[in-house]
């Protein structure tokens, strides 16, 4: 069962994914998410990367529909998303494969590293809007070299989706975690 911290973290992502703001996620929300990712400069129409982006985003919808759409209505609410938290540790390879595709999409210049500007683009693309990420990149860049390489990013990505420890930097990969007031 999702902790309060995981609920806070995933509530923000749920809102970002709910493209039509109807309180549910469905296939069309994941199609809209894929469309946002296809707008990145490196994800050219018809490219192999564009096909991977579509496969990853819609693949996550398929996993949600299969594993947590309890009533089979083709819609997933926040509580159903939170039920997925228990399954994610058993899906580590799928989560890591998603990180690979996201990394490739965001690494705009193809240098094998994500810069602070590219990280901002990742956060804004996930959220579909500009998000204040002041101080977040410094927290993520644990070796202090000014970039996230592929292994660093993959570890952070896995932490974001699986971790319940607010101290792990990956929990802030997609922006600051909102807290209850």
UniProtKB/TrEMBL annotation:
Does the keyword section mention Repeat?
yes
Keywords on record: Metal-binding, Repeat
Q: Which residues form the EF-hand domain?
A: 5-40, 67-91, 128-163
Domain of life per record: Bacteria
Cross-referenced Pfam families: EF-hand_7
The record's listing under PROSITE patterns reads: EF_HAND_1, EF_HAND_2
Q: Give the GO molecular function terms.
A: calcium ion binding
What protein name applies here? Calcium sensor EFh
What is the species listed in this Swiss-Prot or TrEMBL entry?
Streptomyces cinereoruber
Lineage of origin = Bacteria, Bacillati, Actinomycetota, Actinomycetes, Kitasatosporales
């Amino acid at each position: 069962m999702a902790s309060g911290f995981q609920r806070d973290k995933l509530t923000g992502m749920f809102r970002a994914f709910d493209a039509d703001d109807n309180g549910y996620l469905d296939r069309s929300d994941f199609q809209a998410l894929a469309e946002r990712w296809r707008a990145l400069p490196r994800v050219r129409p018809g490219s192999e990367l564009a096909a991977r982006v579509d496969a990853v985003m819609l693949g996550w919808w398929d996993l949600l529909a299969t594993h947590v759409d309890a009533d089979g209505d083709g819609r997933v609410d926040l509580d159903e998303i939170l039920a997925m938290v228990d399954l994610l540790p058993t899906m580590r390879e799928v989560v890591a494969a998603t990180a690979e595709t996201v990394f490739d999409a965001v690494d705009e210049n193809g240098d094998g590293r994500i810069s602070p500007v590219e990280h901002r683009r990742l956060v804004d693309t996930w959220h579909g809007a500009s998000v204040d990420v002041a101080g977040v990149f410094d927290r993520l860049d644990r070796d202090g070299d000014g970039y996230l390489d592929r292994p660093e990013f993959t570890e952070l990505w896995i932490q974001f989706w699986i971790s319940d420890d607010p101290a792990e930097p990956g929990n802030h990969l997609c922006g600051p975690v909102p807290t209850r007031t």
